[in-house]
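hey all, quick one before standup. I had two proteins in the batch that finished overnight and I want to keep them in one place so we stop losing track of which output belongs to which input. First protein below, input sequence then structure tokens straight from the run.
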Amino acid sequence: MGLSTHVLDTMNGCPAAGMHVALYATTGGQATLLQRLVLNHDGRTDAPLFDNASLKVGTYRLTFDVAGYFKARGVALPEPNFLGQVSLDFGVAHADQHYHVPLLVSPWSYSTYRGS
């Protein structure tokens, strides 16, 4: 499966449908945008970010528009927001394995892990 992501809204107890996400390749502190997407009704992408043939060993960044998502849901957020965008930097050491990068998020906290 390559690389995938999934976002769960822990404030409302549901998938983060409609959240905007950007994927970057990173090298030496520089980030190159690879794609922008919007999560589907299940808080997932419609297709893997990379399939097994396209995933390469290297470092990447996923950036999630947390404030935009919660504002669109009508959540009153302070200015400035506690969490605006959440960026997760991660490495792919084995391109033949599946890397799933989930995000559990509220306007006040987040967590992630390497999923399966």
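OK second protein, same deal, sequence then tokens:
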Amino acid sequence: MSGADIIAAAKYLAAGLCMGLGAIGPAIGEGMAASHALDGMARQPEMEASLLRTMIIGQAITESTGIYSLVVAIILIFVA
């Protein structure tokens, strides 16, 4: 194995770890947001529209961290 092969392997390993670890937080956060929103809708059905809108906005903001880790992984693969 040459030095270039080791660098290529490390680059792909780092990109995979970046996506794997970077997706855990958003997944947990979105699951908790959906869980609590559904709990609130079950308790107060008249607030469904407001809770749904707030949940979707919160999940979109939470998903942005997953997108950031995707961007970092792509940079690791194609630039580094």
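Flagging for whoever picks this up: The domain at 3-78 is CATH 1.20.20.10 (F1FO ATP Synthase). The two ends are 19 Å apart (CA to CA).
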